Amino acid sequence: MELPKTVEATLDLLAAKNYVADRSLATALLLSLKLGRPLFLEGEPGTGKTEIAKVLAASLGRKLIRLQCYEGLDAAAAVYEWNYPRQMMEIRLAEAGGDSKTTLESEIFSERFLIRRPLLEALAPDPAGPPVLLIDELDRADEPFEAYLLEVLSDWQVTIPELGTVKAPAPPLTIVTSNRTREIHDALKRRCFYAWVDFPDAARELQIVRSKCPGVGEKLSRQVVGFVQKLRGEELFKQPGVAETLDWTNALVALDRIALDPATIDDTLGALLKYQDDIARIRGTTAMKLLQSVEETAA
């Protein structure tokens, strides 16, 4: 499938896979696709940053290559490494067969013994078109790895000392996400289009719930969204994201609930809140007041 040419076409492309984006996010995605630059998405966890890469790959029929970042991530895990056990076996066989040292060196550092990791795989040509490369939660990686990405994201190439430079025939469609647990360096941000992904407003979150949870009734979906929107106004260690809204909705549907009540909210808060202090703060009186406020707003 061809890349979208307008903001409306981008919105439609995402909506076809039940991703409800606002216009500013769709515009940032369109520009990153048109100009061949990575899209850097920053925001709270659970706001759909990772999901947009999955939806983009599925909608365009492209391969999704995901690099999940973590502390200690290095080039061997992200780019390539040599298959040392196979190399050792090749060396023993060559020595037994009397092969020359020069021939042996050229053989063991060939493509045959190269293990491609996500970044190198994303640079390879693909008949279906450049893949979608998701570099997820970059803020979890160490700064040296972030610096290593500068060459990859600007020149779309990596250097393998034994083989030379590998350059992509066309840039992968790249999405970089960060939950902002630490600041990402400006040098990397300058290579990307930047977009802040915020919690959706009530109308858009209701659209998301309806599209992702088709089994939920009208009253329950409005109550769920209204409750979550008000809950985000409370002092919490971790506010619930859209992912938690969907989890809660599915949990309520699984319990055959058609409307919220105080007891059900207290029993299911674990689907929304992931810290015991937050659950203890909301459970009981506060939950009941939030529900009353939701019902007054709806009346």
Radius of gyration: 24 Å
Beta strands, count: 9
General shape? elongated
Mean pLDDT: 91
The low-confidence parts are: none
Structure commentary:
With 299 residues, the chain is of the alpha/beta class. It has helices spanning 7-15, 23-35, 49-60, 75-78, 84-97, 101-108, 118-122, 143-155, 186-189, 202-212, 218-231, 242-254, 262-268, 276-282, 285-298; strands at residues 39-43, 64-68, 80-82, 114-116, 132-136, 157-160, 164-167, 173-178, 193-197. The strands form three sheets. It has a five-stranded parallel β-sheet with strand order 2-5-8-1-9. A two-stranded antiparallel ribbon has the order 3-4. The protein has a two-stranded antiparallel sheet with strand order 6-7. α1 crosses α2 (23-35), α10 (202-212) crosses α11 (218-231) and α10 packs across α12 (242-254). The radius of gyration is 24 Å and the shape is elongated. The relative contact order is 0.13.
